[in-house]
Design goal:
The protein is mainly alpha-helical. The chain has ten helices and eight strands. Among the domains are: 112 residues, Transferase(Phosphotransferase), domain 1 (Orthogonal Bundle); 83 residues, Herpes Virus-1 (2-Layer Sandwich), CATH 3.30.40; 36 residues, no CATH class. α2 packs antiparallel against α3. It is elongated, with a radius of gyration of 44 Å.
Length: 334
């Protein structure tokens, strides 16, 4: 256990026993709670069924120190017969020689090679200067961690909640503004709604920084795809597609109107003789040179076999000769 200031404190709640008292029956453990203790802190010989000794306490103490200084350590699981947690001292402990040596002499698997409690207290790890140094290093690490966390914290300009920079998007303006993921999705939904269609079109389908005076460019699609949910981004892409189709249709309509107006003006500038000659030309091209049904005037390109043809247009079904192009009620294939 440890105090809030980082000073380690040991506490034994339920496995104390008097080794000088009469030995209990074989196979019986004296404990104040149900169970045999925490396997992760048991020495190998105790796990194998041997009686706990002072040497086993040294091993448990070493395990306590290890997990106190490396709280994120995940014990390995032994594969074989029984799945038992196995302690492996991480390489990070090698940077502290005093801590590394303490763990080495207390966590050795051979009980006879472990030091006694008196020898352990004489280790460099328990010297005041070593303890102060360890405490100082812990405080420095915690301060660096808090500073790094503070450096990554951002204030959302919409909801004013504090989030990690990875939990939202930040614009690239001279004074960056942050927007959390929840507010980003709300902004995307609002921007693509029917009520904001005109504004969305004016922004060319882009999502800008929410700060009105920001000089940043709009957020790119890659940034939005990373921070928004899949459903929100798909809805945003559909809105952009509709806007693109609307712009294309508007451009085509404008081009068509321009061409019609130019044709009207060109015809108005023709003389009577030129206008008559154009009408004759159009009749030759459309009525004489173009093969068409004599009834509904639907053009046909080609045919195979017999010249007795039948119009394919629904409701017409005119039977006619492909040579003379006249209809005949009783025209049949030869």
């Amino acid at each position: 256990m440890g105090e809030p200031r980082g000073v380690p404190v040991l506490a034994d709640f339920d496995l104390c026993r008097d080794l000088q008292a009469a030995a209990p029956p074989v196979g019986v453990m004296q404990t104040t709670r149900v169970g045999m203790g925490t396997e992760l802190y048991m020495s190998p010989e105790v796990k194998a069924g041997a009686r706990p000794t002072a040497s086993a306490d040294i091993y448990a103490f070493g395990a306590t120190v290890l997990f106190l200084f490396t709280p994120d350590l995940k014990p390995e699981v032994q594969i074989g017969g029984s799945r038992q947690p196995v302690i492996r001292v991480p390489s990070v402990c090698a940077d502290d020689s005093a801590l590394s040596n303490l763990l080495k002499i207390s966590l050795t698997e051979c009980a006879s090679k472990r030091v006694t409690a008196t020898q352990l207290l004489g280790d460099d790890f328990f010297k005041p200067e070593a303890l102060l140094r360890v405490r100082h290093e812990r405080e420095m690490q915690q301060a660096e961690k808090r500073a790094l966390q503070k450096e990554r914290e951002r204030l959302c300009v919409i909801c004013y909640d504090t989030e990690d920079v990875g939990g939202g998007v930040e614009c690239g303006g001279s004074e960056p503004h942050f927007m959390c993921s929840a507010c980003l999705e709300g902004t995307m939904v609002a921007a693509t709604g029917d009520d904001n269609a005109r504004v969305f079109a004016e922004r060319k389908g882009m999502i800008p920084c929410p700060s009105p005076e920001c000089d940043s460019a709009a957020f790119d699609n890659l940034t939005l795809a990373r921070r928004a949910s899949a459903d929100s981004f798909r809805a945003y892409e559909r809105a952009r597609q509709r806007l693109h189709e609307s712009n294309v249709n508007r451009e085509l309509e404008a081009t068509f109107e321009t061409r019609v107006e130019a044709e009207v003006q060109r015809k108005a500038a023709l003389s009577d003789a030129e206008r008559q000659a154009r009408e004759v030309r159009n009749r030759i091209v459309n009525d004489i040179l173009t093969l068409a049904c004599p009834r509904c005037k639907q053009a046909f390109v080609d045919f195979d076999g017999c010249f007795a043809l039948k119009c394919s247009r629904a409701g017409c079904n005119c039977a006619f000769c492909a040579v003379r192009l006249f209809s005949h009620l009783h025209l049949t294939h030869a």
